[in-house]
Each structure stands twice: as C-alpha cells, then as structure tokens.
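Design a sequence for this backbone.
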C-alpha cells in the first residue's frame, strides 16, 4: 500500500486545552501526525478523547488493505465504517467522512444495534455498550473480511483487531495480528511498528 509521507503540523500545547473545540481541524491534523506515536494525549476531556479516537479510526483505514473482491483497486468505491451499539462519537465520524477521503475513496458511516441491521461494513467499531456480548459479536465477524475496532478493556486480547485504550491521559492502541490475518486483511507494517502487538495466545485472548 502506498501511503503519503506524514509531515508534522503545528500541534497544540497542553496549555491550549480551552481552544480545542474551536480548533478542531488543527486537532485532527495533529492526530494524523501523532498516530506515529504509540500513545496520544487525550487532553483530559471526554469529548476530546472521542475526537481523537475518531480521527485515529479514520486514519487506520489508510493503513489497511482489503482483498480485491471486497474493495476493488483503482475504483472510487466508498469505505463503510459502522458503529455497533451506543455511539460515543456523535457527529464526529460523519464530519471526518464529509471532509476527508481515504486513498481517494469516500467514507460512509452507518449505525445500528445489530449486525443484521448494519449490513455490509468494511470496518466496525464495537461500542463498550456491547461488552456483555463482545465474544459473540467477534465470533460472528471472524469469518468476514471486516476490520474490528473497540475501546473496551482487553478488546484486542479478546480477538478484536484494533483495541484503543485510555491510560494516564493518553490513548494507546494494540493490534491483534492473528485476528487480522484470519480475516484476510493486510495491515501496513508502518502501523504495526507503532502498535502494541498481541496474538490469540496472549493472556486473556480467546
């Protein structure tokens, strides 16, 4: 996969917290650059945490390749991102999808409480509201070529592909490379170098 060289924007300092919401485009530019670090500062407030997580999810799409029968190359077919369960992002994902393409492809957002309602998705964010049935959901998605992302504790260890965690006012991410391989997806080595790598055999893995 060809990825454009990332250049560091002029990012906000911690002392600029009061200006985070008005400066949203700059925040997102910083996240695109800061995804080059394994931990990203969440700037203390919940709304900003999900702005950062949404931007990370959007950026992850640039580092994933789907098989040609799922997402044909040299086309402008859209990439569909689904939110399963309660949506913690509000309109943030929609705003990103409206303003930014991924490899020249538009991004569409769907939401639903059940997989059957969502229909086909290239990526699914499984909300923490689905914690009690996450094993069931991951099992249902295990034979489907779809990127699974979540931010509940142990998501990647439990078989999810990318797990986002918040700790010490930072956002970390882990990639379960066995779950990725089982779904016939390819994740760029550039992203893997920045992630915590887990496998199905990790502690707590299925």
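Sequence:
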């Amino acid at each position: 996969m060809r990825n454009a060289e990332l250049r560091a924007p002029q990012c906000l300092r911690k002392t600029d917290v009061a200006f985070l919401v008005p400066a949203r485009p700059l925040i997102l530019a910083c996240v695109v650059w800061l995804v080059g670090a394994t931990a990203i500062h969440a700037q203390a407030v919940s709304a900003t945490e999900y702005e950062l997580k949404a931007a990370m999810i959007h950026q992850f799409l640039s580092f994933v390749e789907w098989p040609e029968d799922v997402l044909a190359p040299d086309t402008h077919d859209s990439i569909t991102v689904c939110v399963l369960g309660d949506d913690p992002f509000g309109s943030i994902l929609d705003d990103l999808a409206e303003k930014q393409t991924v490899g020249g492809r538009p991004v569409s957002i769907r939401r639903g409480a059940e997989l059957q309602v969502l229909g086909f998705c290239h990526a699914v964010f499984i909300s923490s509201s689905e914690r009690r049935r996450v094993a069931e959901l991951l099992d249902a998605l295990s034979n489907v070529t779809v990127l699974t992302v979540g931010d509940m504790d142990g998501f990647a260890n439990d078989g999810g592909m990318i797990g986002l965690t918040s700790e010490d006012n930072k956002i970390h991410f882990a990639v379960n490379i066995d779950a990725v391989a089982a779904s016939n997806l390819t994740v760029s080595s550039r992203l893997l170098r920045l992630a915590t790598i887990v496998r199905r055999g990790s502690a707590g893995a299925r």
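Residues 176 and 204 are 12 Å apart (CA to CA).
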